[in-house]
């Protein structure tokens, strides 16, 4: 892994210096960003990408100057993408069922019961989905990993790639939903991710079977209190509107609509009732891979909240 990164970095450096044909020239900040994120843009494309990079830098600076902001933006792997490109590469459009179409769960819990702040983030790891709209698959495979950890103290990995390849209700990197992926995990089960590794693009279904099955799953959204209650037991896979998440770095986010276009894993809420969500854009994004949303139905978090049980 390290070796391949170093090799890629060395190749990029070579290409960059060749491109300039003046090896002694120092690298500018865009070159350094390219090296760090293993990107190589040349010719016309480079000119365009560098301009996008500069525009994004300006956007981040302006945002972070605003005294009233509740979150900071930061530079990351998405710096050379316009917002439209970011949306089309990383997010998916989901024809989400309307709230009223979803099955009402029985409110069996005592609403007077005091809420305990909870954070399950240590039960799974932050993944990197790459250039594939597979947030829906990671949201579910991570929720299975956490479920096995919390329930049985078993440290497992569950294959997101299998969902991309084999869940016939999804369109691989282009579309998928958490409830269909959970249905697959219930009917078929998932392999571990060593046996069925992530490649970040759709291929033919390699194994339509797996050791990690779930008993059932249910909708636990709609009301803030419902999600808060159920998240005390296990993390919850949630659909979100991530259209403005491109440069989120830290703090409490609420700059969004409720049009679901991405899935993440809700692992708890903090003392201020802010939702704690694990994303699949690597540890370099957000607060070590995590975003915090303000309370309530921020970014539509209550619209497609499904939990394994
Ligand atoms: C983001 O993190 C920086 C560095 O820790 C901190 O100074 C800043 O206040 C944080 N921003 C927000 C909005 O929490
Ligand atoms: C689970 O196993 C992985 C790989 O062996 C390890 O990195 C991780 O720390 C383990 N996590 C827990 C919670 O034991």
UniProtKB/TrEMBL annotation:
GO function term, MF aspect, one: cysteine-type endopeptidase activity
EC number of this enzyme: 3.4.22.15
Keywords, in A-Z order: Disulfide bond, Hydrolase, Protease, Secreted, Signal, Thiol protease, Zymogen
Catalytic activity: Specificity close to that of papain. As compared to cathepsin B, cathepsin L exhibits higher activity toward protein substrates, but has little activity on Z-Arg-Arg-NHMec, and no peptidyl-dipeptidase activity
UniProt signal peptide: 1-24
Keyword Protease: yes
InterPro entries given in the database record: Peptidase_C1A, Peptidase_C1A_C, Peptidase_C1A_papain-like, Prot_inhib_I29
Cited function: May be involved in extracellular digestion.
Protein name: cathepsin L
